[in-house]
Structures are given as C-alpha cells and as structure tokens.
Amino acid sequence: MEAVTQGNIFVIEDFIAMTIGILVYFIGRDLNSRIDFLRTYNIPEPVTGGVLASLVSLGIFLVFDLQIQYELETRDTLLIFFFTAIGLNARISDLLNGGKALITLLGLTLGYIVLQDVIGVLMARLIGQPDAMGILTGSAALIGGHGTAIAWAPEIAERFNLPNAMEIGVAAATLGLVMASLLGGPIAKILLSRYNLSGDMERRPVVGLPVETRDEEQINHISLMRVILTLHISIILGFILNEVIAAMGLKLPLFVACLLVAIVLSNSVPRFFPNIGWPARTRALAVVSDFSLGLFIAMSLMGMQLWSLVDLAGPLLILLATQAFATIVFILFVLFPLMGRDYMAVVLSAGFAGFSLGATPTAIANMTAVTKSHGPAPVAFIILPLVGAFFVDITNAFVIQFFLTL
Fold first, then answer.
1. What is the pTM of this model?
2. C-beta separation of 117 from 399 below 8 A
3. What is the 3-state secondary structure (H, E, C) of 319-337?
4. Which of 35, 38, 142, 201 is the most buried (most CB within 10 A)?
5. Element of type H or E holding 383
6. What would the pLDDT profile of 83-139 be if each residue is shown by its tens digit?
7. Where are the domains of the chain?
C-alpha cells in the first residue's frame, strides 16, 4: 500500500482509496445531518462528501499544481455488487400484478430513454460538442444516474477520444440529481392547481414499498455470508454470459449481464428449492447493497478531476438545461395525460421528474412531499420503483450501445 508521485500527479493506491472513500461517506453523512438544505433537497450522503472531496482536490491542483488520482478497482467491484443485488430483489410477479398503470408508465419511461439520448445528441451537435457528450448528458447520466454514467464512461472515453468522459458523466448525474429534487414539487403544484385535484387525506400515508422481512430475521455473519455467496455465484455466471454476448458481437458493461443473471436466478431458484434460504429482499442483502452503492458513489465523486471540466462548463450547463426543459414538457403534455389526469398521475409526475433526471430515491422523495400535503397515492409508490429498479438499467444499456454505434 503506497501513494506514488509521478511528476505533478499523486496516485493513491486502491486500498487507501477505499479507506478514504469510507471517510468521505461519513463526512457527507455528518454534513447532511447539520445542513438543512442538503436534507431538504435529498442530496445523498456520499454525493455530499464526494463532491466536497473533489473540491478539495481541485483546490490542491489550483494552489500546488498537483493532480490527485485514485486507483479504483474496488469501486468497480462495488458497482457489480450493487446491480446484481438489484436483480436479486426483482420479482416478475410484482410487475405482472401492477396492471395498466404499470404498463403505461413502463412504456413512457422506455420511450423517454430514447428521447433523452436523441435530445442530448442533437443539442450536442448544435453547440459544437461531440455526440458522445450528448449521450453522457442524456440517459447515461440522467435516467441512468451515477452508476450507469461511471460504468459507460471508460468505453466512451476510449472509443471517442473523450478523456474526461468520467468527469462529464459524474458531473451531469450530480447536477441532474439536484434538478430532479427541485422540479418535482413545482410540477405537482402546477398540475394540482390547473386541474383542481387532491388526494384523500383520511387514508393512511404510504411511503415506498413495504419491507418484506420476518420478525425473527437477524443480520449476522451467516446471513451476510449467504448474501455474498449468492452475489458471487450470480456475478460469475454473469461474467460467463457477458463473454457469450461479447462473442456474438454485442459489447455491454458487465453489470448488465450480472443483473440479468440475478433476475433469472431470483425468479427460478426459490421455486425449485423453496427451503434454500434465498436472500432476496432480506435485510442482509439490503445492507450489502446500501454499502456497495454508498461507497461506490463516494469513491467515484471524490475522484472527479474537476480541473478538466473548465472548458466544458458552459456546454454542460446548456445540455442539462435543455434536458430539464424537455422533461417538464414531456411530463405536462405526455405523461400526465396518458397516466389518467388524476391525482395519482400528479404524484407519478413528481416522481418521474425525480427519476428521469436523478434517481429512484429522488423520485420517492418528490412523491412523499406531495402526498404528505395532499393525501396518499399507494399505487404510485409501488409501480414507479418497480419500473425504475427492474427494466430501466437493462433497456438503457441497449439504448446507449445503439447510439454509440451510430
């Protein structure tokens, strides 16, 4: 374990980088507990800490002309763990029981993934930027979030000679998260006022999906080892599947194959072996998943080389402002009418703003803010997370790959 200086570049070894990432996460958690703004706009702890750490690195560069770089092999492994865990939690039966609203929202979401990339590419060309930057600031960073942007950035950087692709993608995802938090409530207010809608305040509020855990379930070394074993088996099979897909001429990030394998396993193994103790939707899996995502984002953001974005600040803001405007128009004139123009459609509109520009947790936060003031919409809290957690990452990967081949 060592840090190596190469000219004006200070390289920090992977194990130390992971340790710093954990520290950065806790710094972000402490700041969120102290600053109301960060909590109000649902800024995740690793985003807070990671952005702060990247700003410190920028300060060191500006003062000492020293670039801090991290080796991030562990971060890449955490990404695979997280997406595989998403696959293990997915149930096809839940999707089938969602009904017409689920199918409609799914169709609109999948269509908007394509539209987001079309807008990104066309706008990038209009302002004289490469198409790849339009894709990065499209579905890769917005609907896809930090994980997808970071997963695709190395390939985009290599194929399209865009060395700061990682910084562009992460910056777009971070700014998208902020926009997502700010737009959901105002959109809902416009729709509620225009159509004079409200919910039933007498009904019990529902926030998120129910946690399906047994009272006697405990998190111990056995449950954690069971989760890790299941994840490892899924990842090994996912690696094999990814090699098969690559041999067929289709190159996808490894996490997509692992996600697919996990979905298949989680919807088949428990049926044939009901007593196997499958770890899907358990607290132990949630702990591993949350740890993987939190540390993954912290390590990714703290490694942003912001000094490489100076020349792209203007184009980046133009591209993201265009995407925000397009999202508002799409929600008001397409999604809300097709979802039924009722109160649930309002709640889903607020959620879609959070989801299409930020992440599923942002969508849940937007919907919660609306329902606390105007009444619950339990179906909305079921179908939107299902769409976000099940189909989007897979579809987005194929859409991004399609646009990159054009």
1. 0.72
2. yes
3. HHHHHHHHHHHHHHHHHHH
4. 142
5. helix 378-390
6. 888 888 877 776 666 678 888 999 999 999 999 999 999 999 999 988 889 999 999
7. 3-210+292-405
